[in-house]
Amino acid sequence: MRSDKARNREAVLAAAGRLFDRAGDPDEVSMDAVAAAAGVGKGTLFRGFGDRLGLIRAVYDERVAAELSAAEPSAAGPADQALDLLVRTWRFKRRHRVLSLALERAGYGSPYRNESYAGLHATLAGLIARARPGSPAGFLAHSLLAAVRSDLVEHLSDQPPIDVEAGLRDLVGSVFAEARGRPAA
């Protein structure tokens, strides 16, 4: 990658990240605003990222790589690994709420159609299948991920405080209950 192209990419990602961090709503961050904040032309954005969704994905993927994917390998069991992943995902989405909402809203009209969701789903489905062979692991993984959707994170931010992590612990416990020798409800 040419140095000016790499420099522009870094400037655009940093500017878009700052704008999403300051915004109250994803729709407040336009391509025009990103181009102006990065000091580049709008054509540079489209050549580098394709469209607004491509830009959102690039900013999101950069942050996921820096923060969420950095988990240490664990000797913990599948239920503990699933809980850790969901708690880290919740915290990430709370920290990056507008960016997370932007990605889920822009995911071709569905929060389920983006690479980040697909990766989380595959990881959770694998953990469930390992702990509960023969279970509907794919469906159960979707069900767990529903608890960390960005729109839920956003909704609960306006509600009286609740212990989200305790709720996630109970939810994961119920999904993995058969694997721990307890009958599922």
UniProtKB/TrEMBL annotation:
GO terms for molecular function: DNA-binding transcription factor activity; transcription cis-regulatory region binding. It comes from Pseudosporangium ferrugineum. InterPro entries: Homeodomain-like_sf (IPR009057), HTH-type_TetR-like_transc_reg (IPR050109), HTH_TetR (IPR001647). Keywords: DNA-binding. This is TetR family transcriptional regulator. PANTHER family: HTH-TYPE TRANSCRIPTIONAL REGULATOR RUTR (PTHR30055), POSSIBLE TRANSCRIPTIONAL REGULATORY PROTEIN (PROBABLY TETR-FAMILY) (PTHR30055:SF209). Residues 6-67 form the HTH tetR-type domain. Residues 30-49 bind DNA. It comes from the Bacteria.
